[in-house]
Amino acid sequence: MKSLKSYRWKAIAIAETLRDFGAVWYLDSSVIFEKLNVSHVYDLVNCHNHVSNRPPMLSSSARDLREGREAHEDGWNREIWERNLKECRKGQYLMHGYSGHGILSVTNPAVYKYFPTNPRELKKQKAKMYDAGFVYAVNTRQTMMDVVKWLENR
């Protein structure tokens, strides 16, 4: 790392911790836990172990309509959490702090070599940016293949 202030080391630290320990909570020093019980986060990851009857995935246009009706995130929303738990579609690399804006305009286009995506979808309201300073990640095949795949290529 030529510049520690660029925080490029953060992803490497998370990836190596996943490799060595299986799971990691990564928190920037500014993050403060306001409650002791984080089982609701674990539930979003553990549902993959026992989901049997997942509702069908909404079409992209239906998700666009839903996002247009829902207010921007502002802390804990039990209704959204329950829906996420029932659908059990969250990955095992969870970012928790919504930045308040979309992701496309603040992401280096070279990043998309590592994260296959549809740029048209990233222009929509549902393409929210989450802060990398508050992460819970679990070493699963999905996490390592879809998110941390670059580690072996460095």
What does this entry look like structurally?
This protein is globular. Strands 1-3-2 form a three-stranded antiparallel sheet, with helices on one face. The protein is 34% helix and 17% strand. The mean pLDDT is 82. The longest helix has 13 residues, at 9-21. It contains six helices and three strands, in the order αβαααβαβα. The protein has helices spanning 9-21, 39-46, 60-69, 78-87, 119-122, 141-147; strands spanning 23-27, 93-102, 128-138. By secondary structure, it is of the alpha+beta class. The protein has one domain. It comes from Caenorhabditis latens. This is Nucleotide-diphospho-sugar transferase domain-containing protein.
Roughly what is the average pLDDT, rounded to an integer? 82
Output the radius of gyration. 16 Å
Shape annotation: globular
Poorly predicted regions: none
Q: Which structural class best describes the helix and strand composition?
A: alpha+beta
| H/I helix tally | 6
Strand content: 15-25%
Major beta sheet, strand line-up: 1-3-2
Largest sheet properties: 3 strands, antiparallel
Total tally of structural domains? 1
User: What percent of residues adopt helix (DSSP H or I)?
Assistant: 25-40%
Return the string of H and E elements.
Answer: HEHHHEHEH
What is the straight-line distance between the termini?
Answer: 12 Å
Oligomer: single chain
- Number-wise, the strands total 3
